[in-house]
Hints:
The protein is mostly helical. It has helices spanning about 5, 10-30, 35-45, 50-80, 80-100, 105-120, 120-130, 135-160, 175-180, 185-205, 210-215, 220-240, 240-265, 280-310, 310-330, 335-370, 375-405, 415-430.
Amino acid sequence: MSDMTKDAGKGALLALFLVTMIDMIGFGIIIPFLTYLVQDLAAEEGVVRIGLWVGLLMTAYSTAQFISSPFWGSLSDRIGRRPVLMVGLVGNTVFFTAFGFSNTLIFALSMRFLAGVFNGNIAVARAYIGDVSTPKQLATRMGLIGAAFGLGFTIGPFIGGEFSNPAERWDLFVGTVFETYPYLLPCLIASILSAGSLVLAFFKLPESIDLASRAEQKPQSWSRQMTTMAKNSVSMLKTATVGAMIWVTMLFMLGFTVMHAVFILYTEMDPSAGGLGFSEQDNGRMFAMIGLLGILTQGVLIGPLTRKFGTRRLIPFSIALTGLGLVLIPYTETTLVWLQMLLVLSCIAIGNGVFQPSSSTYLTRLARNEGYDLGGVMGAQESLGAFARILGPLSGGFVWELTVNGSYPWDYHTAFHLCGFLMVVSGLLTLRLPTLAGFDESE
């Protein structure tokens, strides 16, 4: 290993952990208050399609990440990982704050898209870890990325909920800019966290690649990379068993992300219309609960469950448990709402917490067992997962707008029924997955 690699110590790993965590904070921070922000701006502009705009704002971030990831990866090969990661943190710092100053829907959409563009460098963080890790260190250090995702998704919604509309809760903020822009404070906190990570990266993150040896390599253009990603994804979907597992993952992600758009559209509804009348703070705590339960599942439960039941058996179980929780969301009532929500969210968080590592582990073993290139398989899964994260919120918002004023079952329940339907299809596809000898049996 090179001297350059040896320099990447705990400070560098901490900086990478924070880069990834801030990505998920940026994704999750708007979830608790996004519906309220859209309602406020829509009322001023005379817009009536609230659900569609919520879906658009959720989708803009993932779309920008998907489009920009190949560019950042290619750029990091030419100029180095360190400057690309730092540019991403600068972008986060600027555009998180700018989003808090949104005074029109178009401005909010633009700032959300630009934040996603600068958060398209998570692949660069993974590449950095690959550069500085021995084969024995790689699994553990990649696990840090997973932990950062979980922690970021817990912290983000909590900050977004707890610090929204501060002038209504604390006299300190009355008559300040935070009363004029009620969602600025959580965005500003995210920017401060990003700026702190930038300072840490500046002092503690060394370059991980030898740029001189890379100078002679001709990098692929952005369009070539996007074309290659599309071809790989389509070819992998056509394969029998590997394709089936990728479809299972994509449909699971689609159903899960539909919920991201419609959950708060439902919880903020007036109880007289069937909703729960939740505030931004209530919603932030709900999503923080999902994050904490997910961390607990992946940190404590997944090992014993895998040893007892085997990875192959856990996949359909986790899909069914997640689907059950998603379908039950609109059937909660204002009486005992926190107890009911705890049960519903436990199903979702534990199901998702079991599915993510189990599906990745199974797909890795399946690809190796059948002689496929692991990089191509994982690239196809990541591309299609990103596509699901783009399509899910948009579909959820669209279905919500079409049905919310209808009568049961074509009303506010419908979008959650769609989540359940997608999970059923995903679960049925697991019937095509083979049992891998010496791997699937409980150990």
